[in-house]
Amino acid sequence: MILDIHVYHIIDIFYDGNTIPFRDNKFDNSVSFEVIQYVPDIGKTLSELSRVTKKDGLILFTIPFAQ
Question: Of 10, 13, 43, 48, which is most buried, counting CB atoms within 10 Å of its CB?
Fold first, then answer.
């Protein structure tokens, strides 16, 4: 029997795919690994990452097979 491990966890933050649910300039850095290529609006996602990352912070994202 395979159990869904998430059944027993409470979700801390829910992201609707449009607005990252944190205030502006909240994080020192932001990361996204192997996800950007799947989002429907890459520009909106990058804008949101920029919004929640501090002005002197870094945003690191990876895309598979990109050269």
Answer: 48
Calpha distance 37→45 (Å, rounded):
11
| Pairing, β 27-33 against β 53-62 | parallel
The amino acid sitting at 51 is R
Phi, psi of 31 (to 5 degrees): -135, 150
Tens of pLDDT, residues 25-60: 999 999 999 988 888 999 999 999 999 999 999 999
DSSP letter string, 1-67: ----GGGG---S----SSS-SS-TT-EEEEEEES-GGGSS-HHHHHHHHHHHEEEEEEEEEE-TT--
Cβ proximity of 60 and 29 under 8 Å? yes
pTM, 2 dp: 0.76
